[in-house]
Queue: 2 jobs
Job 1
Amino acid sequence: MTDSPTLALAKDLISRQSVTPEDAGCQQVMIERLKALGFEIEVMVFEDTTNFWARRGSESPLFAFAGHTDVVPAGNLDHWHTAPFEPTIVDGFLYGRGAADMKGSLASMVVAVEQFITDHPNHKGSIGFLITSDEEGPFINGTVRVVEALMARGENIDMCIVGEPSSTEVVGDVVKNGRRGSITGDLTVKGIQGHVAYPHLAKNPVHQSLLAIHELATTEWDQGNDYFPPTSFQIPNVHAGTGASNVIPGEFKIQFNLRFSTELNNETIMARINDILAKHDLDYDLHWTFNGDPFLTDTGALLDAVVGAVDNVNQTKPALLTTGGTSDGRFIARMGGQVVELGPVNATIHKVNECVKVADLEKLTAMYQKNLENLLAQ
Ligand SMILES: [Zn+2]
């Protein structure tokens, strides 16, 4: 039996060892296919990262697929049952690094567009592809830079499907229609180092901080809303002390991270945390890292089209969730358009023996194609 177009393309992409930020020729394969459909291609290289933007049509609305060709490293090869960069089918599953995250999605997108354009060569609006090779890396020179370049010339994506593996049990059971924001604080509380036997000559920053940390850890930041769970605060790292049992430490480093809902933003969080620290009269430095604002795609044309497309294929509607980590969707959402994530089952992503059900690739292709029909068919 010959492979379906989606399966054949997914295999081709998986066989290229595009460990982040390498692209290993994956984008060129996609570009050739899109060029043949009449897409205009713009390769955008920023530092070590290759990206491309492709567009077919000049009208509004501009609908785009977004995704990444890079993958995380294979990990321990002894634990793989198949070679990670040799796509292999076992019992109806396609194995290989990137099968689910997200070369299967990329193949589905390209084939869905090929089939849609064959049926609707004079479609409404425009179709875009925003593809990067640094989603799994530091996300500095990837989607965020392409978004900046597009925004600078007023070319804003109105609607976007990111092909991240959103599904949990069957493909399409979950569509992510937003993501929480993420902010990290690196707090250094300063004391005075000294001998534990002479505490009156020192100032212990651990002791000084405990009530403030307790208050931070027990504060209710918000109650969430219809789409978001309550904002969470967690301390992943702390450090103080020299290792010696007779030295009062000179400083105490506490790192915290908040995953926050659309009820809050960076400014309100920073202000509330500084208020708490000030109340406890601490001498401190606080360095912030902004990992992304929350975004939400509420009711609208895109959500209707995607939910309808999933329903058409699965005979059941997807759950709309905002759970999970951040994704490149947060950068695309800055353009002010609607952004959702729809992709394969995420059970094996970043693990050894990453796989995707072959039948799910066909379903995903059908969902993407149906979505295009719902939005852009004449
Ligand atoms: Zn991914």
Job 2
Amino acid sequence: MSNSRKVVVIGGTGLIGSKAVAILRNAGHEAVVASPSNGINAFTGEGLDTALTGADAVIDVSNLMSFDAPVIRNFFATSGNNLARAEKAAGVRHHVTLSIVGTDALVQNPYMSGKQAQEETIRASGQDYTIVRATQFYEFLETLADAYAVDDAVKVPDIQFQPIAADDVAAALVKVALAEVRNATIDLAGPDRAAFASVMKDYLDAKGDTRAVSADASLGYFGAPVSEMSLVPAGASLNGKITLADWLIGQSSVKEEEKA
Ligand SMILES: NC(=O)c1ccc[n+]([C@@H]2O[C@H](COP(=O)([O-])OP(=O)(O)OC[C@H]3O[C@@H](n4cnc5c(N)ncnc54)[C@H](OP(=O)(O)O)[C@@H]3O)[C@@H](O)[C@H]2O)c1
């Protein structure tokens, strides 16, 4: 008997979603790439009922980059309600949401407030779920370097940081989705924890970016005040295997291949 399952990846064209789809397909599962560009829209509900027919699990890695709290809260709450309704109607066994470590303590950050609305929606929906809260992706470091740039330097909050590779996030989500429902929230982080400034320095050094990096205790995280452990798991967590150093080597070999 085949162990192949159907898994719908909401946001399946995105950074994490496309990796999750590839992992599922390589393992012999049926993966549906669900995104507005494919006619499947969690916010409007378009195409959901057909996409979910026969699905065992849904992985929600959809995203809307907005720092307007009402807009982002409405996006995640409405999408979450549409997904839960359609999943229950189709008899989907397991819903997995990708959220962010520390979300509930950082809601003064409008985007985090949206993620909180997404989490609350699935918890209240009656659909069986697991929420996976990941730390920042290595792929997000470039955005962070731009966001914290001041003149010719980069100043970041004086906090601990434990970023993770998108490949590890996608692999963990697939594993969680195919496993038993938890109806709980779990944390997922990279293999190494260090000061944010030290991680940023390693990242910029590897890119040949010579800007000075320093920690500034007065800085928050996109509008939310932070303390030393705000962005790292407080207790037990799942952990990725790919270190920042290994990931950076992988990035430079991709660049070399592109040049050749
Ligand atoms: N960046 C980080 O460090 C970090 C850390 C922890 C967690 N996260 C979470 O990770 C998740 C995935 O992030 P990502 O970087 O992979 O996102 P991304 O690359 O920006 O991709 C977003 C995806 O969402 C889809 N989408 C947008 N609106 C949708 C809708 N109405 N219905 C269905 N799909 C929709 C997009 O589809 P189209 O291609 O059709 O537009 C795209 O596939 C986010 O929820 C984010 O909060 C991020």
